[in-house]
Design brief:
- The structure holds two protein chains of two kinds.
- Chain A is mostly beta strands.
- Chain A has one domain.
- Chain A has no helices and five strands.
- Chain A has a five-stranded mixed sheet with strand order 2-1-5-4-3, with no helix packed on it.
- In chain A, a hairpin with a 7-residue loop joins strand 1 and strand 2.
- Chain A is elongated and about 35 Å long.
- The relative contact order of chain A is 0.34.
- Chain B is of the alpha+beta class.
- Chain B is built from five helices and eight strands; from the N terminus they run H-H-E-E-E-E-E-E-H-E-E-H-H.
- In chain B, strands 1-8-3-6 form a four-stranded antiparallel sheet. Chain B has a four-stranded antiparallel sheet with strand order 2-7-4-5, with no helix packed on it.
- In chain B, helix 4 crosses helix 5.
- Classes of the chains: A mainly beta, B alpha+beta.
- At the A-B interface, strand 1, strand 2, strand 4 and strand 5 of A face strand 5 and helix 5 of B.
- Strand 2 of chain A pairs parallel with strand 5 of chain B, so a sheet runs across the interface.
């Protein structure tokens, strides 16, 4: 089975609760991520805990994407 | 509907064998919710474990007094579970969960059916309980970042 990335997303600088979701690809700095109806830019990605089986565990910090919403 | 393949991509079932996934699929029911539909309500008995297959759900927690309005504490997307605390501790729902997008696809598993499978197959029971613990740990780590 291909790798699955379980990602903890936290939005910096605003009152947004963040999200957790699985993804087929790891997020990278500069990527745009959609959470619900809003787009965010990834500014930091770190490994949260070591991988287990096909699962990789990441944390990404987001900011509101410029020019969106 | 056979959910064996999709269950294999859910962390809750990491290390579960194909035969065990098949058994879980047989006790699973797929339900579609639209934006704003309430799936579980804080304080009510918890009978089901839920897995988000597509879309987003919003987890809201109310304070202890009536004047405190509910606050969204997290959004959960594809592959995430909720309702697992009731499976572990048999308590009432700790939060209200509602769909945060139209056509949010959720898999429901009745806790009694799930517990029976785990009782009859201790390998399945061990793996699932370990994975639930790992999921709760991940959510706690997420909370730590959110509170920074």
């Amino acid at each position: 089975m291909p790798a699955i990335y379980k990602v903890s997303y936290v939005v910096s600088g605003e009152d947004h609760p963040g999200a957790i979701q699985n993804s087929d690809a790891a997020p990278h700095q500069g990527d745009t991520i959609s959470l619900g109806s809003h787009d965010f830019e990834v500014i930091e990605v770190i490994d949260l805990v070591p991988p287990r089986g096909d699962f990789h565990y990441l944390h990404a910090t987001l900011v509101r994407a410029p020019g969106k919403d | 509907m056979d959910h064996t393949e999709i269950l294999g991509s859910v962390e809750l079932f990491e290390s579960v064998t194909p035969a065990e996934l098949q058994a879980i699929s047989l006790i699973s029911k797929e339900v579609i919710f639209n934006n704003g539909d309430v799936i579980t309500r804080q304080g009510e008995p918890g009978e089901y474990l839920y897995i988000v297959l597509d879309g987003f759900v919003e987890v809201l927690h109310s304070g202890t007094t009536p004047e405190q309005s509910p606050r969204t504490i997290i959004h959960l997307g594809k592959g995430q579970i909720f309702g697992e605390m009731a499976l572990v501790d048999h308590g009432t729902r700790s939060a209200t969960v509602r769909a945060a997008s139209d056509q949010t696809k959720v898999l429901m598993i009745h806790c009694d059916d799930f517990e029976q499978e785990c009782e009859e197959n201790h390998h399945l029971g061990y793996v699932v309980m370990r994975n639930i613990a790992a999921d709760l740990s991940f959510k706690l780590r997420h909370r730590h970042f959110a509170d920074r």
